[in-house]
Amino acid sequence: MSLSVDTTAGMTRSAARPAGRRRQPRPLPVLTALCGLALLAGCGGDPPSALNPAGTGAARVANLWWLLFWISLAVVAEVMALLIWALVFRRGNVRVRHGQPIRFVAIAGAGLPFVILVAVYGVGLRDLAALAVDPDPDAPTVEVTGHKWWWEVRYPGASGATANEIHIPVGERVKVRLRTDDVLHSFWVPQLMPKTDLIAGETRETWLRAERAGRYRGQCAEYCGTQHAHMAFLVVAEPRTDFDAWLTRLNAPARQPRTEAERRGQQAFVQGTCAACHAVRGTGAQGQVGPDLSNVGSRWSLGAGAVPNDAGHLGGWIVNSQTVKPGNAMPPQPVSAAALPDLITYLRSLD
Ligand SMILES: [Cu+2]
Predict the structure, then answer these.
(1) Sheet strand arrangement including 214-220
(2) How far is the CA of 166 from the centre of ligand 1 (A)?
(3) Which of 35, 134, 325, 334 could form a disulfide with 306 if both were Cys (CB 3.0 to 4.6 A apart)?
(4) Residue 217 Cα to ligand 1 middle (Å)
């Protein structure tokens, strides 16, 4: 048996094209390139990139990503080089000696990829083991519960809670215990740690460790309904002393009103509909349906990244949050025009 390679086969069809006929412009490659550029334009600003890690967990994933990138690049370069070599040095119809191409195909086409894939698999297994949860029972722990569409954050031992904001001491491995109140969510802080799914009825665990102090954006990474995109959170990595002060504040009652307006606002809050769903520590408001608002004034956003936390957006949110974040679990509130400014003043004083 012998193998023959007909290198002229491709030639006949193109040679059959009538001479002198001009090539038509091709819209598809141009469109593809334009779409690619449009996608790249989205890369501006300061997105939390997994390739810009700030913690040991994300650093491992980034290293693996670069390893795969360079291997892929080497393979593409090699294939291209062989292709060009074949095009340049083709010699018409050649009879290839039996045995020779089989050996080449077996080594370059099967043996080499096998070795590379097994090696990469080994590195992946090593990283998986390194990312597994630390058994240290004394590690600081934070309990995070996913709701449609916000994150409830509690620390064992602290009576209070917060929302969409997780404080951790910098340079320490913090255990994160994850539960969901409703559907599947996924906890992802690209610069600190890869994703962990929140599965109904289960308690999942992961950990966070930030090497530098800073604020790192996290995001729900599993589609969970219409407002999935507005289910963001912030991880605040701070020195141990600041973290301890934060925990102390979570145990203390919320800031008391100091002005008349704040006092009226507090009264409207506690006696109004708000107290049915929201808690403010140290007041009669102990609702558990929505986020704890004891320090809502210091939060980075309203509605888990939906709008900035300022007086205007707060007023709009209270009156009808459905226009801001349609479908969220807070119905429009019957707040009188007279009571609204006091309510805003009071909530903004809670830091
Ligand atoms: Cu989601």
Answers:
(1) 165-169, 232-238, 214-220, 185-189, 193-198
(2) 17
(3) 325
(4) 14
Closest C-alpha among 94, 233, 86, 75 to residue 168: 233
Distance of CA 38 from the midpoint of ligand 1 (Å): 25
Number of domains present in the structure of the chain? 3
Residue 330 CA to ligand 1 center (angstroms) comes to 18
Mean pLDDT value of segment 95-118: 80
Same domain, 85 and 169: no
Same domain, 150 and 125: no
315/9: higher pLDDT: 315
pLDDT at 23: 57
Residue with tokens 């002393």, as numbered in its chain = 241
Give 204-244 pLDDT, tens digit per residue. 999 999 999 999 999 999 999 999 999 999 999 999 999 99
Q: Could you tell me if 240 and 146 lie in one domain?
A: yes
Neighbours of ion ligand 1 (CB under 5 A): 185, 220, 224, 228, 231
What's the length of the chain?
351
Domain containing residue 323: CATH number: 2.60.40.420
241-268: per-residue pLDDT in tens? 999 999 999 999 999 999 999 999 999 9
Range with the lowest mean pLDDT among 85-94, 157-166, 300-309? 85-94
CA of 276 to the centre of ligand 1 (A): 26
Q: Residue 270: which domain range?
A: 260-349
193-224 exposure pattern, b = at least 16 Cβ within 10 A, e = fewer: bbbbbbbeeeebebbbbbeeeeebbbbbbbeb
* Strand arrangement, sheet containing 150-154: 161-163, 150-154, 141-147, 174-180, 204-208
pTM, rounded to two decimals:
0.84
Centroid of chain to Cα 201: 23
Residues paired with 175 in a beta bridge: 141, 207
**pLDDT score at 106:** 84
